[in-house]
Design goal:
- This protein is an alpha/beta fold.
- The chain has two domains: about 160 residues, P-loop containing nucleotide triphosphate hydrolases (Rossmann fold), CATH 3.40.50; about 60 residues, Alpha-Beta Plaits (2-Layer Sandwich).
- The strands form three sheets. The protein has a six-stranded mixed β-sheet, sandwiched between helices. A four-stranded antiparallel β-sheet has the order 2-1-4-5, covered by helices on one side. Strands 12-13-11-14 form a four-stranded antiparallel β-sheet, with helices on one face.
- Helix 2 runs parallel beside helix 4.
- About 35% of the residues are buried.
Length: about 300
């Protein structure tokens, strides 16, 4: 198995009496998409800041590409890209100039071929010579991503990358993040759009009040804590046979049936099979898979402890 690309051990950051990060320990695998989730003020941006050199830690250790950042705080970070929440480029430069300057920040020479490659991938090539102030909000967000990627980083932090963009652009960016992973880039994503994490992430981390509450494979997490739901509408109230009485919840009027599948309970497929064998007068049947939002609330409210 490949060594972790990033290792954090007991990372703590204090601002006076406020503890923004509280003994965070985390390991990130090469080539994965890791979603770091939590409410506003949970510590997500502080953690990214500490890892990228924008925030000075209070204690703990950080290793990037196997290198201790206390021993070499600069070298490993040349292989890191960051997409911040806020727009952070000079509005008087063109798109091309912004990327040339970004390459210079990372000690690289002008590379027109690479700039065109990134702009093309993000559908910005026709804006190459436009001043950045003339770009739309969505194009500015794309340019932030281009800046983070133009120097070919091995690790990219995406801090709320699709905040404030439309649905179509969000989907385009999702596809590009998948492409990055396919090319071997490791991605750490923070987002308040939980469908984004549900769609993209390989693993999920949940942080709140500076503490890392949970780190788990997304599929395993949703199977462990998720609840699949079955809703059945009947044409008329009908008595249930013995095999269904103890499984289904019946509404007061007797025309709505519901079932919740949890780990270790009867699978929904078997319940549906029993319903049809009983020849109930079904009008409509709907199943709903577990959502990451529901699981996140369980973790944050302490109704389920991390494994």
């Amino acid at each position: 198995m490949n060594s972790p690309i990033l290792e954090v051990q007991d990372l703590t950051k204090r601002y006076g009496e406020l503890t923004a990060l509280n003994s965070v320990t985390l390991s990130i695998r090469p080539g994965e998409i890791f979603a770091l989730l939590g409410p506003n003020g949970a510590g997500k941006t502080t953690l990214i800041g500490a890892l990228t050199g924008l925030v000075r830690k209070s204690s703990g250790s950080m290793r990037l590409f196997g290198i201790d950042l206390d021993r070499d705080p600069l070298g490993p970070r040349f292989q890191v890209g960051v997409v911040p929440q806020e727009i952070n480029f000079d509005p008087f430069f063109t798109v091309n100039e912004s990327l040339e300057i970004q390459l210079g920040y990372y000690g690289q020479k002008a590379d027109p071929k690479r700039i065109d490659e990134v702009l093309s991938a993000l559908d910005l090539l026709d804006k190459k010579h436009s001043p950045t102030r003339a770009l739309s909000g969505g194009m500015k967000r794309r340019l932030l991503i281009a800046k983070a990627l133009v120097h070919r980083p091995k690790l990219v932090f995406l801090d709320e990358p699709t905040a404030g963009v439309d649905v179509e652009l969000r989907r385009d960016l999702w596809n590009y993040v998948r492409r990055l992973r396919a090319e071997g880039t490791t991605v750490i994503l923070t987002t308040h759009y939980l469908e984004e994490a549900e769609e993209l992430a390989d693993r999920i981390g949940v942080i709140d009040k500076g503490r890392l509450l949970l780190v788990e494979d997304k599929v395993a997490l949703m199977a462990r804590l998720g609840e699949r739901r079955l809703e059945i509408s009947l044409e008329r109230p009908t008595a249930l046979p013995a095999g269904l009485v103890d499984l289904l919840t019946v509404s007061e009027e007797g025309k709505k049936l519901s079932y919740v599948e949890r780990p270790g309970t009867t699978p929904i497929a078997q319940v549906i099979s029993r319903v049809y064998r009983a020849e109930l007068p079904v009008v409509e049947l709907e199943t709903r898979r577990p959502r990451l939002e529901e699981i996140l609330l369980q973790v944050l409210h302490g109704t389920e402890k991390a494994s």
